[in-house]
Amino acid sequence: MKLVTWKDSNLGQFRFSLDDKYLIGSSYYTGVSNLWQINLETREMEMLTNTDIGLFAPLEITPGQLLALQFKRDGLQPVLLSREVVKDANAVTLYGQLAYDYTNTLVTPYNKSWGFSVAAFGDMDALPLYQEIEVKDVRSMQTASVYGKWSKTRTSLGGVMKEQGYELGVEGYGYLAGGRVYPSVEATGNFGTLVPFDRNTSFWLRTAAGHNFGDEESVFGTTYFGGFRNNYVDNRDAFQYRTILAMPGADIDAIPAHSFAKATAELNLRPLRLNNFGTLGGLLMWTYYYDVDMIHRWIDKGLDKQLVLLDSIKRGQLDNTQTGIFLESIKEKFPPEDFFDIICYVELHVELSVAAKSRVMIRESGLVKELPLTEDNKALILSQYEEYKLLEQRLGKAARITIAPIVKYYPADYKALEDLRTECKMSSDSP
After folding, report:
1. Whole-angstrom Cα distance, residue 266 to residue 331?
2. Side-chain half-sphere CA neighbours of 272 within 13 A
3. Hey, what long-range contacts does 62-69 have (CB within 8 A, 24 or more apart)?
4. What average pLDDT does this structure show over 269-297?
């Protein structure tokens, strides 16, 4: 047995293809959950979709055809897709950022930005950027700057900050003071990587270099390093020690430099989390109320949708519900007799589920004795259940897999159905 991994991206919900030569599943490698396949012989990853909304839980139901769940506004919905390798993925716009996706080559999360600023200052007694540097002869100045930044960083599952990648930046700025121009340039390069000995622990090397082209005897032609400068009101970024001018342990603006180079090593340890906090009594009370509320929501929402679906099936108008539309979409994929069995199976599934939920509501209301099941009702339910199980055995594997998302039983459904069967098996004259 060999564990298959892929760089630092999670691989999820992978299943064997029908020919057992591939594993087909989903991964967030592109920033969105897309479908991929792994060639078991070559270990090569191949992209099957390039969506911007998310696809999950793929399963090959017939050669070359996949059943998957697609994320929609109203929840996950089953879709049928062709199993085709995407050779040339298009750009995907996500949350206002541009991500470029290529087959087996990821450029995201690449980010770039640029900007510029101009400012004017008057009535000065200190430099605007360096609060401790006194200005005697010049009372006003103008500044201009332009910058560009490029980065590609990643955060693994459970991380709270960027854990690996690079951040590059360059900035040019200048002062106009006392009729003279003081240009300067600065560049930064930060490089990080995850360390192998502990999860979510990263090591970063942060570097910077700069040069002032003005008069090095003038305060305007000098860069000053020191403390973090938020000594009066702590309203800045918590990571002030990462800035170019930060020099922990020194006084504010205490270290002058006409040219400089700087490097800082940084080890970020994994975050600590409070996993166990609170009292058992409070947890049990919350669990009780949550469980009761969950049962009520399960009955209210599920019962309404199933009644609408049941009415649509009996009327022969499947396009009235999302489930009906899905059933219509797979009609051509199966022989008529198989599709008829699918409709009968779904109808029995819904009828049994509605009957089980109805009895749950009656038991919750304490009306079991007032509203008992008649012998005819019991016989009908038991015969429906037997027919339901026979159809389940008669349906082929492809049909069962295809309709699995719409006939799925949750634990609450299983319990409700078993309680109903137990009640039906009891004789009406039993105590």
Report:
1. 60
2. 0
3. 62/18, 62/333, 62/398, 63/18, 63/19, 66/24, 66/35, 67/401, 67/402, 67/405, 68/35, 69/405
4. 54
Contacts of 219 (CB under 8 A, 6+ apart): 127, 130, 133, 134, 135
**Biggest alpha carbon distance in the chain?**
108
CA distances from 56 to 24, 46, 59, 81, 194 (A): 11, 16, 9, 12, 28
Q: What pLDDT was estimated at residue 103?
A: 35
| The predicted structure's pLDDT at residue 273 | 64
Cis geometry, peptide bond prior to residue 109 (ω within 30 degrees of 0): yes
- Cα 424 to Cα 430: distance, rounded to the nearest angstrom: 11
The whole model's pTM is what? Answer: 0.42
